[in-house]
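Thread: "does anyone have the structure for this chain?"

Original post by V.I.:
We have the sequence but no experimental structure in hand. Need at least a predicted one for the grant figures.
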Amino acid sequence: MQLALSELALPLVHPFAISRGSETTARSLVGRLHWNGAEGLGECAPSSRYAESVESIRNYFETHPVRGDDPYALEAMLADLPPGPRCLLDIALHDLIGKDLERPLWRLFGLDPSRTPTTSFTIGIDTPDVMLAKLDEIREHPVIKVKLGFRDDIEVLAAIRARYTGTLRVDANEGWTPEETVAKLAQLAKADVEFCEQPIPAGTPERLRWIRERSRVPLVTDEDSRDARDLLALAGCVDGVNVKLVKCGGIRAALAMIHTARALGLRIMLGCMVESAILTTAAAHLSPLVDWADLDGPFLTADDPFAGVAYEHGKLVLPGGPGLGVVERTSAAA
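Reply from O.Q.:
Generated one for you, tokens below.
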């Protein structure tokens, strides 16, 4: 079993900014895992927020070659890997298994592809005029998520709501204090916001509980919910958690988070980074299990070389091909 790695630079349709910074090109690492004449595709779009990078993941695989030669031996092959490398390898292994069995992943998981949720599309932080222009480009979409955590963010959100009648979600990316959050959520409630994602810095579930007791806008964690081990401390403090394959370490770890969250009475959103269709499609195969989706990574990029999950008025449409069902666009056009 051989793993070949290549960096993928994805230019964005618009500069993408959150409360921590901005980018015009997203970087990810694509893995091609070869076994028994088949190729499994994997990807990781690492975040410096979690002390990982394209370089750190590449360096990991250079010093830790893939062990074993059986893609079905998932536990043995993925044991003790850091989240980023585990995510890439986990997805590639699942793609190989599906191709070997000639079945799409959603079928191997016993899921109904018609039960996928409608994903939100994200408006990143910018000047008010630019954010409203971005809204105009996607205003027919039924669910929009707006990044907040900047000066006059509530006023901008009010202007967006004044011209948009669909479902609105907001994400502050750890940009507020607890006191600011309570005050801002009181105003956001007037805009009929569905939920607020990660308003304060991660690490203090009791402060999330304090906020929740003082607001009627539901709270969803992102940075606070990295993997299944984080969820017990969040029970009773928030309403839901954001599951991302990059954070937790791939499909198997995401399934562990989903089942743990359900056992704790937490609702679930599947999220993504700015990434290619490989990583987003891997998450989408799990989407019939969750309440909400924020799987718009490929929608934010200008030139994705891969095709996989599709969108019908925002509803996720899972591919029917084996494994991930992801193909390279040059192959799709041939």
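V.I.: this helps a lot. The chain has a mean pLDDT of 95.
O.Q.: and Residues 83-101 form the longest helix (19 residues).
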